[in-house]
Amino acid sequence: MSDPDVRRAPPRPGRAPVDRRHVILERVADEQSIAVGDLARELGVSEMTIRRDIRLLERDGFLRQTYGGATAHLTRSLDVAFNARALQHPREKRLIAMRAAPLVDGRSTIFLGVGTTTEQFARYLHAREDLTVVTPSLVAASLLGTRPVRTVILGGTVRRDDLTATGPIAAATIGRFRFEAAVIGAAGISARWGLTEISDEEAEIQRVAIDRAEQVIILADGSKVGGAATAVVGPLQPGFTLVTDISAPAAELAALRTQGLSIIIAGRDTAEPEPPRRRVSPAPRRSRS
Questions:
Q1: Residue 25's pLDDT band (boundaries 50, 70, 90)?
Q2: d(Cα 139, Cα 131) in Å, to the nearest integer?
Q3: Any idea which fold 88-266 has?
Q4: d(CA 243, CA 266)
Q5: How far apart are CA 70 and CA 147, in angstroms?
Q6: What local confidence, expressed as pLDDT, does residue 64 receive?
Q7: Residue among 182, 155, 183, 159 nearest 170 (CA)
Q8: 17-84 and 88-266 in the same fold
Q9: Which residue ranges make up each domain of the chain?
Q10: Which of the four pLDDT bands, split at 50, 70 and 90, describes residue 65?
Q11: What is the CATH number of domain 17-84?
């Protein structure tokens, strides 16, 4: 619970939607719950606007609605909730995930990488008892762990900002598997620099997974296409598949095609079904100590 003596910054009417949603997540992190009416008055918007923001945050896995407000989602840490990348292009990421999920139908062992788009992929993945998913993402593992999928989480050092397992232990665990498909995200993908990631720790995990995969599927919204981050994962190879959205720059897509990439565009006119619902048991009540 926040200190009642700490004064909040005055409201700024007309905040952008992303700013409002950051405030909502901040308030939930601080107080564990929010009241719609109070937040609407503070931000100078209608209660309907706040409820719409909460619905979108719930759909993207950050919050769980309760009567009159919202509470923190049980499978996500508050550090992840503050990850600004997760609030960028959420609809495009859902469409990409929905379009990519059927590409691994029939596969028995897949690697699922890290990132907010691959987390969406975990929601739309067609769960089967004979499917094994190996992932360094604690978030993806939490989304898959209660569904009929054999989920293997890598060991190693957990990065606090995105709940990802990295390091030599994680890389060694990947070495125990052969993947029929590796589904990975990317901080950047370009004809010049290939696949890039934010850190070399994450890039190394991607390298090992790609080396052990028969098929590589890259999920990247249009803002990542043509861009490059600091750590180079490796060059693009003929036969890789890129699933992106219609905002990706056409010139860059053409350059990627010349390198042998198969490119799938998830269009805005594609209908969005609800991702598979997880069966969850009520959490046990905890008494205050």
A1: confident
A2: 18
A3: Rossmann fold (3.40.50)
A4: 7
A5: 24
A6: 60
A7: 155
A8: no
A9: 17-84, 88-266
A10: low
A11: 1.10.10.10
